[in-house]
Amino acid sequence: MRFATFGRRLAPAAALAAGLLAVPAWADGEMTVAMQLEPPHLDPTSAAAGAIDSVLYSNVFEGLTRFMGDGSVVPGLAESWEISDDGLVYTFKLHDGVTFHDGTTMDAEDVKFSLDRARAEDSANAQKALFTGISDVAVIDPQTVRVTLSEPNGSFLFNMAWGDAVIVAPESIEGIKQMPIGTGAFKFTEWVQGDRIVLDKNPDYWGTPAVLDKATFKFISDPTAAFAAMMAEDIDVFTGFPAPENLPQFEADDRFQVLVGSTEGETILAMNNKRAPFDDIRVREAVAHAIDRQAIIDGAMFGYGTPIGTHFAPHNPAYVDLTGLSEYDPEKSRALLAEAGHPDGFTTTLHLPPPSYARRGGEIVAAQLAEVGIKAEIINVEWAQWLETVFKGKDFGLTIVSHTEPMDIGIYARPDYYFQYDNPDFQALMKTLDETTDPGKRTELLQQAQRIIAEDYVNGYLFQLAALTVAKAGVRGLWANAPTQATDLTAVSWAE
Questions:
Q1: Distance, CA of 266 to CA of 402 (rounded, Å)
Q2: Taking a C-beta distance cutoff of 8 angstroms, is the pair 446, 318 a contact?
Q3: Torsion region of 485: left, alpha or beta (phi above 0 gives left; psi -120 to 50 gives alpha)
Q4: When you count CB atoms within 10 A of the terminal residue's CB, does the N or C end of the chain come out lower?
Q5: pLDDT by residue (tens digit) across 5-51?
Q6: From the CB of residue 480, how many other CB atoms can be counted at a distance below 10 Å?
């Protein structure tokens, strides 16, 4: 999941432009994009894995609204909408002539099916809370759907832009995890597990057609292999580049461009708030004071990242810098541990998923915790294993993960969320926020929310993940920032 604080700079515009002059035009209309993580399956509406959206968001699946690269929310499959005076009823007018990739028509019945499925009691949607405020979805006619809320929600149109809210069809839902069928500018063609996913241009797309004819997503987990593949020009783009130490070499090479942007990814040292000893706020505070954020940013991310003291993106206007509440102070950490009955520290587990920020950062975190007597046993897990053991099973002490969902502080109002924070006052605050539409009041509430979780030391707040992309110099139209976890290729092309 920023600005000038990344510790690195982009290549000067003039130098980049000069490099582009020497780059020949590409005419084949194909592009190969590499990512570190492979999706566990291909249904964005039933998993928490961001890698699914990284491949499919906007490319294959679309929602009523959608995020743009600048973070704005614009119409998607909904051409327009009307909101009732009391804020409870949203009437969406759908674009005409939209079809799914299998040729079936996308209409109001599909919207109703998708929203009802997401909010159903047995829903497997990882963000089911986005839909719980919906009390009814009614089909008015094939192009019109009416969504009624149980109470006003100032974030509703924003929520409908999430990858978890894309529109799917009942005809293809059974096979969606292996054969995703959406309405986007690209259609799914092939998945060779462990290697690649191939998307082809959708010739019947309802909107502005894609420029590329084919896009291939390759999965390269090892940072050294990522550097080698990019340097050899075997791939055209690497999003979420996992070896930040190599970026200066790409910046100095006219064959490439380096994009350094912001993400929504709050990288946290999550603590299991219902498992001893982390059910004691003194222990959680001790963990927070044992962590040297800048050392983690420098050691694991080579300076790319912004320290955070709460679960909120620093580039958001409502952000409050609360890093001072959990500044690096090993002596205070030891004193808190002794006060909590752990003068000699304790032993716990530290589950680390594959991304470099977790594996590299985890080694540094474990060493820092050891300095105050906390022995964290590192357990490296694959992504599917992390989702099963940590996210679903809640069987962990500590873990490191970057939350790439946009404006997701509301997860702290879910007692059954994997870090199991249960604070009725915070839950009431989030409910008030949902019911508030005035921008100034929403900012005040968001700032209160940031302070509550920082003062409760729910998790160790490490840094905001930078968006690091390496691409061949001739690639155009990539998102520099990541307002949601996505690799939107719908407007990407080669320079002419």
A1: 5
A2: yes
A3: beta
A4: C
A5: 223 223 333 333 333 333 344 446 999 999 998 998 999 888 767 78
A6: 13
pLDDT at position 166: 96
Domains of the chain in start order, with CATH, are: 61-175 (3.90.76.10), 263-466 (3.10.105.10)
Contact predicate 99/105, CB 8 Å: yes
Strand partners, 149: 134
Q: Are 116 and 170 in contact (CB under 8 A)?
A: no
Q: Give CA separation, 252 vs 2, 260, 262, in Å.
A: 21, 15, 22
pLDDT (tens digit per residue) in 210-245: 999 999 999 999 999 999 999 999 999 999 999 999
Q: How much is the pTM?
A: 0.83
Over residues 143-191, the pLDDT tens digits come to 999 999 998 888 899 999 999 999 999 999 999 999 999 999 999 999 9
Residue 41, judged by CB atoms within 10 A of its CB (0-12, 13-18, 19+), counts as middle
What residues contact 468, with CB distance under 8 A and at least 6 apart?
Answer: 240, 241, 244, 247, 258, 259, 260, 304
Taking the CA atoms of residue 222, residue 53, residue 317 and residue 481 in that order, the dihedral angle to the nearest 10 degrees is 50
Structure tokens at 292: 């040297």
The predicted pLDDT at position 22 comes to 37
CA atoms within 13 A on the CB side of 358: 28
- Residue at token pair 């962590």: 291
Q: What is the largest CA-CA distance in the chain?
A: 68
Distance CA 407, CA 265 (A): 10
CB 291 within 8 A of CB 462: yes
Instruction: Kindly give, in sequence order, each residue whose CB lies less than 8 Å from that of residue 64, ignoring residues fewer than 6 positions away.
Output: 75, 76, 77, 78, 81, 92, 111, 160, 165, 167
Structure tokens at 231: 């340097």
| Residue 438 burial by Cβ neighbours in a 10 Å radius (0-12, 13-18, 19+) | exposed
> Among 163, 195, 220, 168, which Cα is nearest to 48's?
163
State the Cα–Cα distance between residues 227 and 113, nearest whole angstrom: 44
The band of 137, judged by pLDDT with boundaries at 50, 70 and 90, is: very high
